[in-house]
Design a protein that fits this description.
148 residues, mainly alpha, 2 domains
Length: 148
């Protein structure tokens, strides 16, 4: 996959809740290869939000984080993300939330810590504030769960 046009179109359709948005994401995923880590990271990130089953959501979140680990810092510049590292806190937050909802508290805590360890990559903007707030709320939820 050499260009982002199809990925961007599929993500836009999915974000707007258009019928077939999830299928468009899956179609773009099917067009990727192992060499397409940036596209796979973005597609998996959005696919996690489009699947109805929690197990599938967590599986896509795991894929997004795994593909993210393969990215150079400038790998997402083409889609307006100046530093791929700045996406890491959100990916860890999403996976931690899924793990917590599955009752996998130790794994949720590990992902929360990983997310907190990368918050310095977030900007001082609305996105950064949203992700920081999500991490704070997740920490509170985990504190309520205790050591279960």
């Amino acid at each position: 996959m050499s260009d982002w046009a199809g990925v961007i179109e599929a993500v836009t359709r999915a974000q707007q809740g258009e019928p077939g948005g999830g299928e468009a994401l899956l179609g773009q995923w099917a067009a990727t290869t192992d060499d397409d880590a940036p596209q796979r990271c973005v597609l998996a990130h959005y696919l996690a939000d489009r699947v109805p089953e929690l197990a599938d959501e967590v599986a896509w979140d795991e894929v997004a984080l795994r593909e993210h680990a393969r990215l150079g810092d400038d790998a997402l510049v083409a889609v307006g993300i100046p530093s791929a590292r700045g996406m890491a806190p959100s990916l860890h937050l999403n996976l931690a939330d899924g793990y917590l909802r599955q009752g996998r508290t130790a794994e949720a805590r590990a992902q929360l810590e990983a997310g907190l360890a990368t918050v310095d990559a977030l900007g001082d903007d609305g996105y950064g504030a949203m992700v920081r707030g999500g991490l704070e709320r997740l920490a509170e939820r985990l504190a309520q769960v205790g050591d279960a």
